[in-house]
Amino acid sequence: MARYGRKLSLVRQRRKVKRANIDVQAEGMKMKRTI
Fold first, then answer.
1. Cα distance between residue 19 and residue 7, in whole Å
2. How many other CB atoms are there within 10 angstroms of residue 28's CB atom?
3. 3 membership: H or E segment, kind and range
4. What is the CA radius of gyration of the chain?
5. DSSP class of residue 30?
6. How far apart are CA 20 and CA 29, in angstroms?
7. Residue-wise pLDDT tens digits, 1-35
8. What's the pLDDT score for residue 1?
9. Cα–Cα distance between 4 and 34 in angstroms, integer?
């Protein structure tokens, strides 16, 4: 169970990181368009 919990936490962290990266890329595109 402990290992399973760790895997779930890692997956959640990776998903959060992916979402954050997508948000950053979206903001970057908006900045490029405005400039």
1. 18
2. 10
3. helix 2-34
4. 15
5. H
6. 14
7. 567 778 888 888 888 888 888 888 888 888 777 75
8. 56
9. 45
For residue 33, the model assigns a pLDDT of: 75
DSSP string, 8-26: HHHHHHHHHHHHHHHHHHH
Task: Write down the pLDDT at residue 11.
Answer: 85
Domain range for residue 13? 1-35
Q: Give the chain's domain count.
A: 1
Give 26's Cβ-side CA count (13 Å radius): 6
Match 């490029």 to its residue by tokens.
32
